[in-house]
Amino acid sequence: MADYNMHVLVCGGTGCKASESEQIKNNFKKYLSELGLADEVQVITTGCFGFCEKGPIVKILPDNTFYTQVTPKDVWEIVEEHIVKGRKVKHLLYKDPKNDHLIPDATGMDFYKKQIRIALRNCGFINPENVEEYIARDGYAALGTCLSEKTPEEVIQVVKDSGLRGRGGGGFPTGLKWELTRKAAGDQKYVVCNADEGDPGAFMDRSILEGDPHSVIEAMAICGYCVGADKGLVYIRAEYPLAIQRLKVAINQAKEYGLLGTDILGTGFHFDIELKYGAGAFVCGEETALIHSMEGLRGEPTVKPPFPAESGYLGKPTNVNNVETFANIPVIINKGAAWFSAIGTEKSKGTKVFALAGNINNVGLIEVPMGTTLREVIYDIGGGIKDGKEFKSVQTGGPSGGCLTKDFLDVPIDYDNLLKAGSMMGSGGMIVMDEGDCMVSIAKFYLEFTLEESCGKCTPCRIGNKRLHEILDKITSGKGTREDLDRLRILGNVIKDTSLCGLGQTSPNPVLSTLDNFMDEYLAHVDEHKCPAGQCKKLLHYSIDDEKCTGCTLCFRNCPVGAISGEKRSPHYIDQSLCIKCGVCLEKCKFGAVLIR
Amino acid sequence: MPKIKLAEKTIELIKEICASFDNKEGELINVLHQVQSKLGYLPAEVQEVIARELNMSVAKVYGVVTFYSFFTMKPQGEFPISICMGTACYVRGAEQVLSEFKRQLKIEVGQTTADGKFSLSSLRCVGACGLAPVVMVGEKVFGRVTSPQVLKIIEEYKEVNVEE
Ligand SMILES: Cc1cc2nc3c(=O)[nH]c(=O)nc-3n(C[C@H](O)[C@H](O)[C@H](O)COP(=O)(O)O)c2cc1C
Ligand code: SF4
Ligand code: SF4
Ligand code: FES
């Protein structure tokens, strides 16, 4: 990093951008140039730091100071106090929630202590729109090594030895996939990067592309060299405008530097990358559907085999890998297979990035070694449950995964353990739920998603999921029976067994896993017509306690539908036929007179 | 739906976009993206022009448009409001926020208010889960939205008069 003696890193991830990080950066630039410091202090926008909960984040190097929840108004103070006078701005420092100690630098935060960053190595450290910063951190060194010192077979062997498995959900060994594509017959072959990231509540791939696009570009070129392809395609969601823009900038810069295009680094190897846009269909994350979508068709899956490695894009051998899978490749080449395979568990090597979200204190993007337990992730890194509530469940694997209870908190995370526990690794969404979340509603929520996203090609998925959803709706309305619970289980298993693609084959998982793990909650809905979490609106009943009501009229004035009546200073009354169960009266009453059951 | 007559200028624009992709059938999705970003939506008449240019059946174009949720055949409001219904937002109360928007605007998801100002849609994860629940109005992101805030957001935009 040139001659600057200080660097201001402003997070430019989607979350922080939404909280005016652009304005923060501009203010820094403005004040610094006013003070004549523009040549000494560099201001850059980086990708996500991962600590989204307390964004926007500003980090100052070299002392690694970590400021949280910065507003454009705070910038002047940081410039004047910290940059000019060298005094940290205390009220913007991160406060350890355990003991209220101020944490002066990022390395001291629990959030980062248990993480190992491989795929995210550059996110939050470099300016993603400047290829030189990537190069300064060993960028494109791996590509250089592969092209000039190794045969494709040797590179594939390194990837195989590293034990890397696909991070898109399936966990297929990456080296083996490359080898299959290499061996497939075909004059033209393709490398595809799957950046469709359909799991709602997950933003790993987006953050990598926004924060470190070159790592993916470099890896795709290496893959092209290995499988014998001169063309790469990135299939990316149109809903990710920032990632698309960063990727475009990066591709152009790589071309300018001779790292993409014809005769890369003078070795005679050609490789180009083109972007293809998704258009909001979850099923297009499935590789055969994705390929159809890239061809301009409806994104409907087809039966495998043939696998894309044999017949993919335009009928040619195609190697499809996930964004995070690719992001690991350059490091594996640089540091070696043995280094990588020393991290993780026996069958799952390396790290996994998770988007930690839900009712947890530190929502954000994390990367942990395989084998870390759920407890460590949720409590040590995630800082525990929000508002001091009780942990209830953690959901991994998105709409294809399952909900695990506290009995599973000590399970070391890897592909096989999560499957055994009744969930799956998935692409890395991790949603934490507390006592206020109704598990029947959660199952219904995921099914609504599947219903919307089923492509409709095969009957079990299209119709079966609809029936599942209807039964769940019946239960959350208090009209379910015990027979309905059996029906859920039977139908769910039929859908799993008979659907064509991964979407249908996994769609009943949220229902089946909650049936296994939270049966008591289903029974409460069915037998007592009660929702223990108090979330199913149709099962709620609001009333006013005559004894406690002072007749202050506050609820009466706030009820949006006029369901409350009563005279001043005498007890009020709720008309059940009008009440829409919005809960406003409960929130407003200062005397605890509104009862809910 | 009543038939709309496309202006010459619009037809030219569509033709240009198709031509920029060499009128290739395989580029249909890219063409649709560009046309929608220019026109705001993809009514049947627009699809007919595209089908003719790319030399494919209207049914095929329609099949693709209706398959992908990003494409819409209805005009959006002046201020399209999208509520994130991704899992992270859902567990932090997005449903209540959505129903408050419905109640205040008196429209359902997929509809536009009578004055053409607001339309309502739900989407899945915009990647700002740390700010859940998230609402987008146009390109602007609102984070940690609560039901009482909904009215404020609407009022904020009611006063804006977009100048041509
Ligand atoms: C319904 C469905 C959705 C999927 N969505 C994604 C996705 O969003 N991103 C992804 O990388 N893989 C997704 N996959 C997995 C892909 O089919 C494919 O296995 C993966 O892209 C291969 O890359 P990997 O080996 O590097 O994981 C999905 C699979 C299914 C069945
Ligand atoms: S399982 Fe569902 S998504 Fe997959 S092919 Fe069948 S209908 Fe389509
Ligand atoms: S829950 Fe809402 S609708 Fe029902 S009485 Fe209270 S304020 Fe009125
Ligand atoms: S779930 Fe709403 S922003 Fe991610």
Can you characterise this structure?
The complex is a heterodimer of chains A (597) and B (164). In chain A, 39% of the residues lie in helices and 16% in strands. Chain A has 597 residues and is of the alpha/beta class. In chain A, the strands form six sheets. Chain A has a five-stranded mixed sheet with strand order 9-10-8-7-11, with helices on both faces. Chain A has a five-stranded mixed sheet with strand order 13-12-16-14-15, sandwiched between helices. In chain A, a hairpin with a 6-residue loop joins β5 (94-95) and β6. In chain A, α10 packs across α13 and α17 (439-453) packs antiparallel against α18 (459-476). The longest helix of chain A has 18 residues, at 459-476. The mean pLDDT of chain A is 92. Chain B is α+β, with helices and mostly antiparallel strands and 164 residues long. Chain B folds into two domains: 8-67, Arc Repressor Mutant, subunit A; 79-158, Glutaredoxin (3-Layer(aba) Sandwich), CATH 3.40.30.10. Helices cover 46% and strands 11% of the residues of chain B. Chain B has seven helices and four strands; from the N terminus they run ααααβααβββα. A four-stranded mixed sheet of chain B has the order 2-1-3-4, with helices on one face. In chain B, α1 packs antiparallel against α2 and α3 packs across α4 (58-67). Chain B is elongated and about 50 Å long. The interface between A and B is large, with 52 and 40 residues. The complex binds flavin mononucleotide, iron/sulfur cluster (SF4) (2 copies) and FE2/S2 (inorganic) cluster.
